[in-house]
Amino acid sequence: MRRSTFYTVGALAVLFGALFLWRMERVSAADRPAAPAAPLPVETVVVAPRADQPSLDAVGSLEAVRQVTIAPEVAGRVVDIRFVAGSRVSAGQPLVQLYDAPEQAKLAGLQAKADYTRRQFARAEQLVPNGAEPKATFDARRYELDAARADIRETQAVITQKLIRAPFSGVIGLRRVNLGQYLNPGDAIATLTDLDALHANFTVPQKALSRVALGQAVRVTTDAYPGRTFEGRVTAIEPQVGDETRNITVQATVANAGQLLRPGMYIDAHLALPGRDAVISVPDTAVQTSQAGDSVVVVEQRDARGVGVARVRQVRIGARDRGRIVVEDGLRAGDVVVTTGQLRVAPGAKVQALADASAQRESVR
C-alpha cells in the first residue's frame, strides 16, 4: 500500500513538472521578439528622362486619290475591247471601241464638202476686191466655210467619244461589258484606280483639333501587313465637326510603294504630335487612380540588396502613349517606382526592388 502511494505521488510530481516546463517555454517564447518578415518582392523601374514623341491614335479606312468608273459619253455597240481586267493602263490608252462607221462616212463627206467650200471662198476672196463679185457673195462663202469646219469638228468629237480611253494611269478593274453589247451613255465598263498614293481618312475627337495641323506626319498600319508601316502626311482637315459624334475627319495622303494598299482597307492611323526632349514617364501599370487622385508607390531608403521602404507618392500625370504615362509632377530622375504588385504593398512595408521584365524588353527593342 505504501509502495503504491509512493508511485502515485511520483507520477504526479513528474506530470506537474512537465506542465511547469511547458508553461515556462510558452512564456519565454512570447517574451522573445518576433523574427522580421522577409521583404516583399516587387517589380520596379528606375525613373530616367527620355524623349517623348506622343501620337494620336485613330482608326479609319483607305480611299483612292483618283478613281473613276469608265463609261461612254455616247451610245453605241462595242466592237473592240482593248484591256485586260486587273492590268495597269496608261493615260490615254484605248480601252473600248464603239461602232463608228456611220460617223466615219459622214466625216468623209463633210471633209469633201469643206474642201469645195474652201475653194469657193478663195475664189471670192480674189474677185471681190476687183468688183467682179459682190461682197455679199464673199460673206456667204466665208459663212459656208466656217459651218463646214464646225460640222467636221462635231463629227470628229463623236468619233473621239466612241473610242473610250483611260483618263489617267492606273489599274483597271473587272470588265463589265462584252463584245457586241449596246451601251448607253453612263453604262459602266470598268473602274480605274490610281494606286500610287491613297487617302487615309480617320476621325479624331474635337478636343484634339488644336493638336492637328496640315503637314503632320502620319504612320498607317493594317492587319493585312503585320509589322509594316506606311508613311504619309495630313493633307486635309474637315472644317465641320460631326453633329452626333463630335469628331473631326482628317485626311492624310499615304505613299503606296509597291501598290500593296487598296482602297477600302481598314487601317490604324498614328498621328505624330509635337514632342519634348526629356520627360519623366512610367509604365501605365505603375499609376494608381483613386478619389484622392493619381499616385505611385516608390521604394525609398534602398540598401545594396535593393531592399527599401514602400511609400505612396501623389503625382500629376500628363499624356498617355503606347503603354506609358507622362508624369508632370511628383517624380524625379532616379526614383524607383513599383510597376506591379502595388496592391499587396502597405505603406511603410519592406520591399525587395526587382527589375521590371517588361521594361527590360522595351529597352531592348
Calculate the terminal CA-CA distance, rounded to whole Å.
93 Å
- Uncertain ranges: 359-365
Q: Tell me how many strands there are.
A: 23
Counting copies of identical and different chains, the oligomeric state is single chain
Q: Portion of residues in helices?
A: 25-40%
Q: Element order, helices and strands? A: HEEEEEEHHEEEEEEEEEEEEEEEEEH
Number of helices: 4
Strand content: 35-45%
Strand order across the largest sheet: 17-18-19-23-1-22
Arithmetic mean pLDDT: 84
Structural class of the secondary structure composition? alpha+beta
Radius of gyration over alpha carbons? 44 Å
Basic shape = rod-shaped
Main beta sheet, described? 6 strands, mixed
How many domains? The number is: 3
Keywords: Transport
Subcellular location: Cell envelope
Domain Multidrug resistance protein MdtA-like C-terminal permuted SH3: 279-341
Domain Multidrug resistance protein MdtA-like barrel-sandwich hybrid: 66-193
